[in-house]
Amino acid sequence: MDLTLKVWRQDGPQARGRFETYPVQGISADMSFLEMLDIVNERLITEGVEPIQFEHDCREGICGSCGVMINGKAHGGHERTATCQLHMRTFKDGDTIVVEPWRAGAFPVIRDLVVNRSALDRIIEVGGFISVNTGSAPEANMLPIPKEVSDAAMDAAECIGCGACVAACPNGAAQLFTSAKLQHLNLLPQGQAERWQRTVAMVEKMEEYFGGCTNHGECQVACPKGISIDFISYMNRDFIKGKSLNRRLGGQGLAK
Amino acid sequence: MVTLDARIPDGPINEKWESHRFNMRLVNPANKRRFTVIMIGSGLAGASGAASLAELGYNVKVFTYHDSPRRAHSIAAQGGINAAKNYQNDGDSVFRLFYDTIKGGDFRSREANVHRLAELSVNIIDQCVAQGVPFAREYGGLLDNRSFGGVQVSRTFYARGQTGQQLLLGAYSTLMRQVGLGTVELFPRQEMLDVVTVDGRAAGVVVRDLVTGEVSSHAAHAVVLATGGYGNVYYLSTNAKKSNATAAWRAHKRGALFANPCYTQIHPTCIPASDDFQSKLTLMSESLRNDGRIWVPKDPADTRPPNQIPEADRDYYLERMYPSFGNLVPRDVASRAAKRQVDQGRGVGPKRNGVYLDFAEAIQRLGRKEVEERYGNLFEMYDRITDEDPYETPMRIYPAIHYTMGGLWVDYNLMSSIPGVFVAGEANFSDHGANRLGASALMQGLADGYFILPYTVGDYLAGLLGQKAPGTDHPAFVEARKGVEEQTRRFLSIKGTKSPDHFHRELGKIMWEQAGMERSKAGLEQALRDIPALRADFDRDLRILGTGDSLNDSLEKAGRVADFFELGELLIRDALHREESCGGHLRIESQTEDGEAMRDDEHFSYVGAWEWTGDGQPQALHKEALTFENIHVAQRSYK
Ligand SMILES: Cc1cc2nc3c(=O)[nH]c(=O)nc-3n(C[C@H](O)[C@H](O)[C@H](O)COP(=O)(O)OP(=O)(O)OC[C@H]3O[C@@H](n4cnc5c(N)ncnc54)[C@H](O)[C@@H]3O)c2cc1C
Ligand code: SF4
Ligand code: FES
After folding, report:
1. Is residue B365 part of a domain?
2. Confidence at A256, pLDDT banded by 50, 70, 90
3. Among residues A81, B99, B358, B497, which one has the fewest Cβ atoms lying within 10 Å of its Cβ?
4. Cα separation of B283 and B280, whole Å?
5. Residue A124 predicted with pLDDT over 50
């Protein structure tokens, strides 16, 4: 198929960006979106134009590297689909496709379609873990965990850290990401000891970088892993509890 | 002249690690702070190793070319991780895991290393569960297991189809905890481009900032490479696009021996390539073989859709040829069998380049819901890529390059032949011999990082007490930094006509053709003529646009492809010298009458470790003999 690509080009973090238009001929419907970009880049190189910088690695929707706005939608707007999982068969011959980087205050553009998402790592380093040093773990089956609980934790843990939720949010909020990270650990018995301090620390760190949530719900629609917006309400509940609890009691009796 | 001393401790196999741990020197807590350890890589091996070393009190610096440690290629592992917990009461034990791994590796790995791995496997599961890794559970709340290719017990732990993701997020979370505590300094988007040695010991590394192009030096008392495998030398593989061998290769050129480069693994269950633009191949987890049945039409001319081919006209060739293991034969056996079916013209799909993996019987036996529970996300992934629904029509699969057993040579302490340079995870050659069992790479990466490096790096550092590490103003650093800058300049100045991807793709074709599942003397010799010719073209006709001081993906690729050329050539030479069939590969000249691989223990029961002898010179081969005292050496048979 033949397409027209309008791509955001920006030479560096401080440079002014602009859209460039590239006609793209002879794309097969079985190609992935990123393979289409590969081909465009090969052609650009032949023509002496610097190739489009974009982020990618696993190309199977798990590493969270890829991620661009396609026609104004994060990852192209298909359910449970990361950019690398998008196939050209979802487009029509003759389409114009607009490709932009994530747009969010906390994700400055590095070059072209590549942004800096390290703010997400900053949230993790203040509490996104269970403090257990190597060697001090008890026998794994000492602690039975109801399958439903473990499954729910896994639902949250599936987040790939792509940042689409932030890019899709009119406020540039990172609530969906942070709540997924929190609930993965907060749901599990192993995560209880640090539950309240974890929640408070991560939420406060999040607020340093990201916008506030006003319940637009765009994040859930954009999320390639189907992370549920319900996790945000659990996070808000835990945050309020975490703030009001007397930590010296370790949250005992209040953890319900 | 290098001598290979694996430094395997004395004593009975099941006491070696225990007594070695006792004999290793310790560093007292106040002194640990004085030591800096550089970790290159933040996959399972790197993240777990860096976090564990930092917990002990060492200063750790972690470098990764990814934007976040969590994106390392380990994230993509699907199927699971082995451990000898024997929770299923089905006869598993440390010894059986040890036995299976040695046998699966076709008697080409070290007994002592593998036994240690089996011993540590049980601790890994404990550690990961404590970190909150949400492994699959049974209704009683206890951990669930599944069986995985090549073994007859259920010892594989898994988290849906995303085991690698969950294990890496666990290791990443412990790493980030240390970053928050200030014991680990994190350097994302920095690519290591040289190892620096002073007086024959590790002194540090030279890295390039991928965003600004700045080249900088970092000094340390020890350097650990946990930089993953080199499967992408074949261009098309299941590895992440950016996975590369540069770190290992630069260490090799500084004196680290490279062991068994020809031992590469081909995974039997990948989605066949659909066109020439294919950028990578997608793995369908091996666990699918537990319930899926593999077949092709008996008649190559049969073009009916699979559902209309009656049982009588199907050949379930694995079940027929290997009645006791059936669809669960090891990866190499399954891969070769598939290749033969396709070569005989019985391949299926539009390009006739696959075989069927059929779930109809499983759906009948278990019900669709259960099949969905077990494989739902894999089916979804398949459907998305091929636009075919595996609940309705059988999947099509074909083998692809997946894993590299070869890697930098290490001794029992995971130290390379450069003192102070350690190698962990897929980057080393240590535990899988000539073929890796499914679900054992994650186990090995985490055993190396959580439970081996913290001791063995400590032992090395204890010997350095009171010695000052050379600073980055040392001439060795200055020279290495110059070399890196010079390389960037060279790539930018060629100003030819072809992209690095072009050369990578062409190299991959040669590798797959001549050093894939089946290898012959003539083919390998041909490759030894083709690769240098292509390399010469690369040096003459490469085109890199842009500059060296901003994010430049093609420039990064050029360096990696240049190293793949050299590694590819070594791989071919290693394959050529190993005139036997073993593990993952078949040497045409060495097979039995019925076409099964024939090993040659008399001549090849050794680790082949190659020493760099200078640009344009063939590497020198060193042999580490393998002895088997605990397992009776036999030809593998899965009949
Ligand atoms: C699709 C797929 C599925 C798999 N499934 C399974 C499975 O089910 N079970 C199993 O046991 N194994 C599986 N494997 C194998 C397993 O995932 C890998 O062998 C393992 O994860 C490798 O881990 P690692 O820590 O050694 O390296 P990696 O995870 O590859 O990490 C390498 C790290 O090194 C960094 N790095 C590399 N070079 C440099 C450099 N020059 N400078 C700076 N940083 C650098 C990278 O940024 C990265 O952080 C699978 C592999 C694939 C491809
Ligand atoms: S919550 Fe979803 S959209 Fe947000 S980072 Fe995680 S996977 Fe991406
Ligand atoms: S490239 Fe890894 S998620 Fe898209």
Report:
1. yes
2. very low
3. B497
4. 10
5. yes
Could A131 and B134 be called an inter-chain contact, meaning their C-beta atoms sit closer than 8 Å? no
Place of tokens 């929190």: A182
Is B7 an active-site residue?
Answer: no
**Ordered domains of chain A (ranges, CATH):** 3-111 (3.10.20.30), 118-252 (1.10.1060.10)
Q: Ligand 1 centre from B228 Cα, in Å?
A: 5
Identify which ligand lies nearest to the alpha carbon of A82: 3
Alpha carbon distance B432, B524 (integer Å): 24
d(CA B158, CA B297): 33
B384, B488: one domain: no
**Of residues B108, B146, B208, B331, which has the active-site annotation?**
B331
Q: In this complex, which of B279, B450, B454 lies closest to A38 when CB atoms are compared?
A: B279
Q: Are strands B586-587 and B518-519 parallel, antiparallel or unpaired?
A: parallel
End residue of a domain, out of B368, B402, B436: B402
Pick among A59, A63, A142, A181 to test the B interface (most B CBs inside 10 A): A63
pTM of the model: 0.96
Alpha carbon distance B262, A38 (integer Å)? 30
| Beta strands at B222-225 and B215-219: parallel, antiparallel or unpaired | unpaired
The predicted structure's pLDDT at residue B276: 78
In a domain? residue B395? yes
Is B531 inside a domain boundary?
yes
Q: What is residue A252's predicted lDDT score, i.e. its pLDDT?
A: 55
**Across-strand partners of B519?**
B587
Q: How far A190 CA sits from the closest chain B CA (Å)?
A: 6
Is B506 inside a domain boundary? yes
* Closest ligand 1 atom to Cα of B246: 41
Task: Please check whether residue A170 touches B, CB under 8 A.
Answer: no
A125's tokens: 């380093």
pLDDT tens-digit profile of A73-120?
A: 999 999 999 999 999 999 999 999 999 999 999 999 999 999 999 999
Closest among B86, B439, B337, B43 to A141, alpha carbons compared: B86
* Residue where a domain terminates, one of B402, B437, B453: B402
How many domains, in total, are found in chain B? 2
Considering only CA atoms, which residue is closest to atom 8 of ligand 2?
A: A162
Query: What residues in chain B have per-residue pLDDT under 70?
Result: 1, 149-150
Sign (positive/negative) of CA torsion A70, A72, A74, A79? negative
**Quick one: which ligand is closest to B239's CA?**
1
Pocket test for ligand 2, best of A107, A162, A221 (most atoms within 8 A of CB): A162
